[in-house]
Amino acid sequence: AQSVTQLGSHVSVSEGALVLLRCNYSSSVPPYLFWYVQYPNQGLQLLLKYTTGATLVKGINGFEAEFKKSETSFHLTKPSAHMSDAAEYFCAVSDKETSGSRLTFGEGTQLTVNP
Amino acid sequence: DTEVTQTPKHLVMGMTNKKSLKCEQHMGHRAMYWYKQKAKKPPELMFVYSYEKLSINESVPSRFSPECPNSSLLNLHLHALQPEDSALYLCASSPRWWNGDEQFFGPGTRLTVL
Q: Cα–Cα 20 to 30 A to A64, which of A46, B12, B93, B113?
């Protein structure tokens, strides 16, 4: 079964600093990969996804992620944090070898942005 | 219309009540999902409907009963719930039931069981 590990349940950065949120998956066949963001009392919103093609994926709000097969990683970055980026971030995977869409989520990383 | 709507936003119910949660999308998506999310935890999949047929039931207790009357609408009927069922219930939809498709989430219904 797929599993997803997000290193760091809480990450704190200063406004304007680099944001790096880590995600590693465990499967021999790379899955489809997703990053979602959840603001307080709201649903999840897709930031970006990787299915095939270029391994550096650009998403909304200035975020990007790079799929690295050799490291089984899909880390999320943003060059300069804004206060509005404070939220919960979930990495999720979907197994290519099963039919249908079934997302497996990581435990989440709470991002705090300090002024 | 590119959103998933859920009603009500908040629901408080007793353990003997019967209530329903409603989810609607008008994006022409053919897969719809119910998730349960406890505080500070990721969403947990409960049910998946693909082309209005129940495709996945993740061993959810029978006090939760899903229904998909048509391709735009998804209901979750609740009966004899327990306090531990208090959570945020999220609905999502995707264009197809394909593992590379993005899921679009609604804002959720915050359920409290007394």
A: B93
Do B104 and A46 lie within an 8 Å CB cutoff?
yes
The answer to whether the CB atoms of A90 and B42 lie below 8 A apart is: yes
For residue A89, the model assigns a pLDDT of: 98
Q: Is the pLDDT of residue B108 over 70?
A: yes
pLDDT(B1) > 70: no
- Radius of gyration of chain A, Cα coordinates, nearest whole angstrom: 14
Reading the block at residue A64, the tokens are: 């990007």
Q: Are A51 and A101 in contact (CB under 8 A)?
A: no
A59 touching chain B per CB within 8 A: no
pLDDT at B39: 93
Test the B interface: residue of A2, A99, A101 with most B CBs within 10 Å: A101
Separation of alpha carbons B89 and A75, rounded Å: 28
